[in-house]
Amino acid sequence: MPKPNPNEGAPHAPEPTQADAEHGAIPETGLLGRAIDAFGIVFAIGIIASALILLNEVVLRYGFDRPTIWAHETTIFLCAMAFVYGGLYCVVRNSHIRVVLIYDLVTGRAKRILDAVISLICLFAAGFFAWAAYGMVIKAIFRPGGGIHFETSGSAWDPMFPALLKIFLFVVLCLMVAQFTIMAVTYLRAAFGKGAQQ
């Protein structure tokens, strides 16, 4: 008499959909993905802060004829930080743009293999851009002679926002490399691990 399959009839976890992205990081991103998703609120607050700063600038400039020298550069910096982080945020929520001509035709193991291949391609692309960003960071924080000097905007206020933004871009790209690695491993385990669904 054949042994009953313990997995037979057991409910399988549904594959992530666009609707899952609205509720946080997809399970394949692991602990890092959940942390990235939770930290997104900081940059959402930054967008609100930039709007309030611009509103304040309008009141000061046109109501009191006392414009600031820091408002515009600060709002640009806050929005740029949010846009850079937005790419990483979309990765963990599986809400990035993709061409689904082939992707939507496959299911089960084939789809998980395709997810792994996509993650590996993205991993190498993020790694390449991280390497390029590292070169920008070195130029932004070191003088040609080797002394430390953070690149500034060159304006009347002259903040070091350009250097900080380049450093942040490099960090985000490194996190993308780590996140795509986790996702690729998770998808491959799901495709070829014990009890993998065909």
From TrEMBL:
InterPro entries: DctQ (IPR055348), TRAP_DctQ (IPR007387). It is found in: Cell inner membrane. It comes from the Bacteria. It is a multi-pass membrane protein. The chain crosses the membrane at residues 35-55, 75-92, 113-134, 167-188. GO terms for molecular function: transmembrane transporter activity. Residues 52-179 form the Tripartite ATP-independent periplasmic transporters DctQ component domain. Its main location: membrane. Residues 1-21 are annotated as: Disordered. One of its GO terms (cellular component) is plasma membrane. Keywords: Cell inner membrane, Cell membrane, Membrane, Transmembrane, Transmembrane helix, Transport. Part of the tripartite ATP-independent periplasmic (TRAP) transport system. Belongs to the TRAP transporter small permease family. The complex comprises the extracytoplasmic solute receptor protein and the two transmembrane proteins. This is TRAP transporter small permease protein. It comes from Thioclava indica.
